[in-house]
Design a protein that fits this description.
The structure is a single chain. This protein has 16 helices and 18 strands. It has about 475 residues and is α/β, with parallel strands linked by helices. The strands form four sheets. A nine-stranded mixed β-sheet has the order 14-15-13-12-11-10-9-6-16, sandwiched between helices. It has a five-stranded mixed β-sheet with strand order 2-1-3-4-5, covered by helices on one side. A two-stranded parallel ribbon has the order 7-8. Strand 4 (about 50-55) and strand 5 (about 60-65) form a beta hairpin. Helix 5 (about 180-205) packs parallel to helix 6 (about 225-240) and helix 10 packs parallel to helix 12 (about 365-385). The protein is globular, with a radius of gyration of 23 Å. The N and C termini lie far apart (about 50 Å).
Length: about 475
C-alpha cells in the first residue's frame, strides 16, 4: 500500500491507521512525490482536507474543512481515512481509529479535562470506539484509579529481568535466551545481577525512595535453579527496604520450570504473587506454538503452588493462537476460572515482527479476527459473571482483530505493578538485561529512560559501563525533585 502525504505532517497516525486495515502489507510513505501509483491512500491539505483511497476497483474521496488548529486538522484527516477504509473493508474496528498502547490513560486524561461526558463524546463520536470497548475502558479506569491513589511522589517499583526460557515460543519477540544456548551465561549473569541490585538499592536508599512493588519478569525467572533464585531474591530482601512493599511478584510462567524447591525459595523470600501461564490448555495448540509442556503439567504446577502456600496466582491465556478454536479457548478459560485463579490475564495474539510466527510467514486474516472477538466476548461474559474485574488494559500494534490485552482479577488481588508500569505512574528502577529504568517527574508526564544492554552476553561483557549509567538516577532526582 502506498501512502501519499501532501502539505501535512500527519503521516505517522495515517500509517498506523492504514496498518489496521492492511496488516499484512508493506506500507510505503511518500512525502515528496509527483505521481501517484495504485493501490494508494492520499491525504492532502489545501483549501480543504482531502483524503482519497484507491484499491483495485474501489475508489472513495472525501473532504473536510481546514481549521487553524493542527490537532483538529490531524483528527479530521484520520477520521476521513477511517471512514473510507470502513467502506472498503466492511470492518468497524472495535477500538475505532485509536492505535495507541494506552487507551485507559487517554480516557483518564479526557475525564480530567471535561469529565466522563467529554470522554464518552470523544471515544464514541470522534474516535469511533464501539460502545462495548468504551464501557470496558470506563470500568477499567475506575478500578485502576484505586491503585493509582496508593502511589506517592517518592514511590518507585523495582523490575528485575531474568532473560532465560526453556525454549522460545513462536509468538515471542522478547529478548531472551533458551537454556540450551545460554546455560553457561546463567551463573555469571546471576552474580552480576546481584551486584546491580545492591547498587540500585543504595541509590534508592540515598534518595529516600519508597518501594511499592517488586516484579521479576523475563524470560521466565523460574528457569533459574532454586539456588540461583534464592540468591537473587535474597539480595532484594537484604538490600532493599521492603517495609512499604505492597506486592512481590515472580513470573513462574512456564509450568515446566516449576518444582517445590523453587516455589519454596520464592515463599522464603517474601514473594506473595506468582504467574503460571499456560497460554492455552489445548495440547495441540501448545505444540503449535513451541511450548514444551502439556495442559496436565500446568494443572500439576498450579496444584503444587497451592500446596506450597500461594494464594495469589495469575494465569495468562492468549486469544487467537494458531490452531485454537473458540470452543477450545473457552475450555481453557473455564478451566483456569474453575481452578480459582485470583487473576486471569487474557492477551490477544500479537504478530510481532521478530517473532517466529511472523518470520515464517504467518499473516492476519478476517476469520481469525472474528474468532478472537468471540473469544474476548466470552471472556468478558464469563469473568464478569464470576466476579472478576478488569483492572488494567493495553494494546499493541499488529494484534489479531485490533483488540486488546486485559488483566482481570478477583477484588483485592489486582497486580499493582501492572497498573503502575502501564500508566507510567511512578519511577521504575530496572535491573537485568533488557531492563529499562523509567524516571518519573512527580506531578507531570515527564519521563527519562535509562537502558540496560539487551542481551545477556552484552550485560556480562559490558557490565561496568552499564552500571555507570545508573549515576543518572541521582542526577535526575537532583534536577527535578531536589
Amino acid at each position: 500500500m502506498n501512502l501519499y502525504v501532501k502539505n501535512n505532517k500527519f503521516w505517522f497516525e495515517l500509517e498506523n491507521l492504514t496498518r489496521l486495515f492492511f496488516p499484512n502489507e508493506k506500507i510505503t510513505v511518500y512525502k515528496d512525490f509527483s505521481e501517484i501509483e495504485a493501490p494508494y491512500i492520499c491525504a492532502e491539505l489545501g483549501d480543504n482536507i482531502t483524503v482519497s483511497v484507491r484499491v483495485g476497483s474501489f475508489f472513495d474521496e472525501s473532504s473536510a474543512a481546514v481549521t487553524c488548529d493542527d490537532a483538529q486538522n490531524e483528527l479530521a484527516t484520520v477520521q476521513l481515512l477511517y471512514q473510507s477504509l470502513v467502506k472498503f473493508s466492511g470492518i468497524q474496528q472495535a477500538w475505532g481509529l485509536l492505535t495507541g498502547v494506552r487507551p485507559i490513560k487517554l480516557f483518564r486524561k479526557l475525564c480530567a479535562q471535561g469529565g466522563e461526558v467529554l470522554a464518552e463524546q470523544k471515544f464514541l463520536h470522534e474516535y469511533f470506539v464501539s460502545r462495548d470497548k468504551f464501557e470496558l475502558a470506563k470500568l477499567t479506569e475506575a478500578n485502576e484509579q484505586k491503585i493509582l491513589d496508593l502511589s506517592r511522589p517518592d514511590s518507585f517499583s523495582l523490575y528485575v529481568g531474568i532473560p532465560f526460557c526453556p525454549s522460545r515460543c513462536s509468538y515471542c519477540s522478547f529478548v531472551m535466551s533458551s537454556v540450551e544456548r545460554a546455560k553457561k551465561l546463567m551463573e555469571p549473569y546471576v552474580n552480576l545481577l546481584c551486584e546491580e541490585l545492591k547498587v540500585t538499592a543504595k541509590i534508592a536508599q540515598d534518595l529516600g525512595l519508597r518501594l511499592e512493588s517488586v516484579y521479576f519478569g523475563g524470560g521466565t525467572p523460574t528457569t533459574l535453579s532454586a539456588e540461583q533464585l534464592g540468591k537473587v531474591l535474597g539480595t532484594v530482601n537484604r538490600y532493599f527496604d521492603l517495609s512499604t512493599c505492597r506486592e512481590f511478584t515472580v513470573e513462574a510462567g512456564r509450568p515446566d520450570t516449576i518444582n517445590s524447591e523453587k516455589l519454596n525459595a520464592l515463599k522464603e523470600n517474601k514473594v506473595d504473587r506468582i504467574s503460571i501461564n499456560p497460554q492455552t490448555l489445548s495440547d495441540s495448540v501448545l505444540k503449535n506454538i513451541g511450548r514444551r509442556h502439556t495442559a496436565a503439567q500446568f494443572l500439576d504446577a498450579f496444584a503444587l503452588a497451592r500446596k506450597c502456600g500461594f494464594h495469589n496466582i495469575n494465569t495468562d491465556l492468549i486469544a487467537g493462537l494458531p490452531g485454537d478454536t473458540v470452543e477450545s479457548f473457552c475450555h481453557s478459560l473455564d478451566t483456569v476460572v474453575d481452578l480459582g485463579a485470583e487473576c486471569v490475564t487474557v492477551h490477544t495474539l500479537c504478530m510481532k515482527r521478530a517473532a517466529n510466527l511472523t518470520t515464517e510467514g504467518k499473516t492476519l486474516n478476517r476469520d481469525e479476527a472474528l474468532a478472537a472477538r468471540q473469544m474476548l466476548d466470552y471472556t468478558k461474559s464469563l469473568l464478569t459473571a464470576r466476579d472478576y474485574i478488569p483492572y488494567y488494559l493495553y494494546r499493541q500494534t499488529r494484534m489479531v482483530g485490533n483488540l486488546e490485552n486485559v488483566g482481570w482479577s478477583k477484588r483485592g488481588f489486582e497486580s499493582l505493578y501492572n497498573v503502575y508500569v502501564m500508566d507510567e505512574t511512578h519511577t521504575i528502577l530496572a535491573c537485568g538485561s533488557g531492563g529499562v529504568t523509567k524516571l518519573k517527574k512527580p506531578h507531570s508526564d515527564y519521563l527519562e529512560r535509562i537502558f540496560n544492554y539487551k542481551y545477556p552476553y552484552e550485560y556480562i561483557d559490558r557490565f561496568d559501563e552499564m552500571l555507570n549509567r545508573k549515576t543518572a538516577i541521582k542526577a535526575f532526582y537532583s534536577t527535578f525533585c531536589g
